Amino acid sequence: MQDSTIVFGPINSRRFGMSLGVDLSPKQKSCNFDCVYCELKGAKPVEEIENPPSIDEIISALKEALKVHQNIDVITLTANGEPTLYPHLKELITKVNELKGRAKTLILSNGSGVRDQKICEALQGLDIVKFSLDSAVQSTFKKIDRNKSGIEVSELVKAMAKFRKEFKGELVLEILVVAGFNDKEEEFIALN
């Protein structure tokens, strides 16, 4: 029986096809941001996942799910929060790649981990990396994403650009427009 708290779906994604989700923080929200639009409410930003599932638990749940769901387009690493906070990310990606078959591997990330070389190295093992960047204006970025560690958006953008040059897979940058926050012309110009 599949551990439904770790593996969920499949979900039909417009962008990525039939997606089987892997939640790296199934027990609680674990994110270093507290975005105004996030559906996961009621938790303060953190810098690490408390009591994360082991690689063995994740791989066991994924193996069971793949027995049932064989026509998957993508295996999506996500979390109730930020998946790059998972402490064994590189090892996990290696193990998932051993199981994936024809499916691609994807991570849905707020992008903050791109400033850490170890995380960048781990992400190199994926087929698709999707980062969020809600604003390139520091004051707006701070209002929308409310991150824990005082991230400078200019440093984040530079790190994302560096990663883009090094990454061999598909990089997707998602910008969520929030009315009253980042919906003005100067916000779009800053993202250019």
UniProtKB/TrEMBL annotation:
Arranged from A to Z, the UniProt key words for this protein are:
4Fe-4S, Iron, Iron-sulfur, Metal-binding, S-adenosyl-L-methionine
Concerning InterPro entries, the annotation shows:
Aldolase_TIM, EF_hand_dom, GTPase_Obg, rSAM, rSAM_sf
Q: Which cofactor does it need?
A: [4Fe-4S] cluster
Instruction: Tell me which residues make up the EF-hand domain.
Output: 132-166
**Which chain positions lie within coiled-coil regions?**
none
Superkingdom of source: Bacteria
Query: What are this entry's molecular-function GO terms?
Result: 4 iron, 4 sulfur cluster binding; calcium ion binding; catalytic activity
SUPFAM superfamilies in the record, alphabetically? Radical SAM enzymes (SSF102114)
Short name of one Pfam family: Radical_SAM
Report if keyword Calcium is assigned. Answer: no
Q: Which residues form the Radical SAM core domain?
A: 16-192
Q: What is the protein name stated in its UniProt record?
A: Radical SAM protein
